[in-house]
Amino acid sequence: MRPLLILLAGIIALCIGLMGPVRAQAMVRIKDIASLQGVRENQLVGYGLVVGLKGSGDSLRNAPFTEQSLQSMLDSLGVNVRENRLRTRNVAAVVVTANMPPFIGKGSRIDVSIASLGDATSLAGGTLIATPLLGADGSVYAVAQGAIAVSGFAEEGQAESLSQGIPTGGRVPNGALIERDLPATFARIPDLVLELKNPDFVTAVRITDTINRHSRERYGVTVAKERDYRTVDLVPPGKISLTRFIAEIESLRVSPDQVARVVVDERTGTVVIGRDVQITTVAITHGNLTVRITETPEVSQPLPFSNGQTVAVPNTSITAAQSGGQLALVGGTDLPTLVRGLNRIGLKPTGIIAILQAIKSAGALQAELVVQ
């Protein structure tokens, strides 16, 4: 009896190996595909000055707002330069932006981004002077100041210049100090609503079922109900704090659904094919046509004693060559089969983009085609 069981186990294992690995859908956390409605960042913006540049700042003649800002700053510090014409190149006017996280309190620090406004060539080595950051309501929520970190550089000589990256933009890590709390708090949120980042009916239902399955096991009640393809309503059970309840919900894992979509970027030759994209079996041929035009001007000399002139006679040679042209079958019910079919043709990304567009026009591409 024991040898028979061993033989049966070996046959089952062999059959599983012949079938190949079973493709499992990716399980992701709810916090990665949905967020609590009303809990969001707020954008801040401000105008300031960067000082300490090595002659790479704004030319005050071409950027009068920089000169006015510099004069106002010096006036506030007790230095009167209104009657003098400033000619420094170590100052640049910049726009400062930042994202204020939700529920952040006074005294916390956030990163800020810096971008030049005038004709400064580089912000490397500069220091941002205290800049108030305003919210959409016009109130000051933070003040930014500190040394700027610039990833790019620009150097120029008399006969050559070298640049890398964008030297007129940078960041100040932890450069803004929060001076005012946001008016809304977590406890004042009227309704707990999960909002999907990629709205989808199937994903919303799966999130609801997963949350209710967890709440029935832990609290004995259902707490979630799908409202539409974008939102899911939550009702706290009352036996746990809101913070701990949301933490439990966000840690649950679901398998999100997605629309079958193909995204192509003709500028860079990028092709992204979604997991559920399918192509009805079609026969494809693609030929590459190359046209070469060569200009080789010739010189025509006049005969001796003919009083003629030497002229250049154009000589143009045009050749055309076409490669490819073999038919290939492409089609598949899953992504690996589809990729193998496209690779069998052996085309460059530009050729694959043209083929995908033609397949879509023929009605064989069972997916949404997005051309960027």
TrEMBL record:
Keyword Signal attached: yes
One Pfam family named in its UniProt record: FlgI
Taxonomic superkingdom: Bacteria
Subcellular compartments: Bacterial flagellum basal body
Keywords: Bacterial flagellum, Cell projection, Cilium, Flagellum, Periplasm, Signal
Family designation: Belongs to the FlgI family.
Assembly behavior: The basal body constitutes a major portion of the flagellar organelle and consists of four rings (L,P,S, and M) mounted on a central rod.
Described purpose of this protein according to its UniProt entry: Assembles around the rod to form the L-ring and probably protects the motor/basal body from shearing forces during rotation.
Annotated protein name in UniProt: Flagellar P-ring protein
Organism listed in the record: Roseibium aestuarii
Species classification: Bacteria, Pseudomonadati, Pseudomonadota, Alphaproteobacteria, Hyphomicrobiales
